[in-house]
Amino acid sequence: MEVYKESKRLAIIVHKMTLLLPKFELFEEGSQIRRSSKAVTSSLVEGYGRRRYKADFIKYLVWSQSECDETITHLDFLFETGSFKDVALYNSLKVDFETLSKRMNKFIQWVERDLNNYPKEGS
Questions:
Q1: What is the pLDDT of residues 45-60, one digit of tens each?
Q2: Does some domain include residue 68?
Q3: Which position has the higher pLDDT, 123 or 44?
Q4: By percentage, how much of the chain surpasses pLDDT 90?
Q5: Would residue 38 count as lying in a domain?
Q6: What is the 3-state secondary structure of the chain?
Q7: What span, in angstroms and rounded, lies between the C-alpha atoms of 55 and 76?
Q8: Could you tell me the end-to-end alpha-carbon distance of the chain, in angstroms, rounded to an integer?
Q9: Phi, psi of 40 (to 5 degrees)
Q10: Closest by alpha carbon to 7, among 38, 29, 47?
Q11: Structural domain boundaries enclosing 29
Q12: CB neighbour list of residue 99: distance below 8 Å, 6 or more residues apart
């Protein structure tokens, strides 16, 4: 899944970025954004593992998208409070997470509409 690859890539960038935050943010907002960015990927993985059960799959995909949107909020807080000052990286991450959220929304819509029509593994 492309959304998985992108979410993992972004979580690694966020993790590395938070290590450069002021010390007082490492365990406050830094911890929050690390957890939410990694939860995007882990929720995708957990949902994919439950793909046999469409409702569970969708539930985890929605959680994943919610974590993506939460990550954007933490990113905004860090930037707007001046704790994160790299304008280029902020803009890049914000655009990338917004794009990922939109792609995840389309994926959720596809699963809701077409998952049962998709060939099963081993078929």
A1: 999 999 989 899 999 9
A2: yes
A3: 44
A4: 85
A5: yes
A6: CHHHHHHHHHHHHHHHHHCCCCHHHHCCHHHHHHHHHHHHHHHHHHHHHCCCCHHHHHHHHHHHHHHHHHHHHHHHHHHHCCCCCCHHHHHHHHHHHHHHHHHHHHHHHHHHHHHHHCCCCCC
A7: 32
A8: 19
A9: -55, -50
A10: 38
A11: 2-111
A12: none
pLDDT of residue 121 exceeding 90, the answer is: no
Looking at the domain assignment, is residue 116 inside a domain? Answer: no
Q: pTM of this prediction?
A: 0.89
Per the structure, how many domains does the chain have? 1
Q: Which two tokens stand for residue 38?
A: 């990694």
Cα angle: 25, vertex 26, 28; to 5 degrees: 55
What CA–CA distance (Å, rounded) separates 4 from 65? 11
| Whether 33 contacts 79, CB under 8 Å | no
Here the CATH number for the domain that contains residue 17 is 1.20.1440.60
Within a domain: 122: no
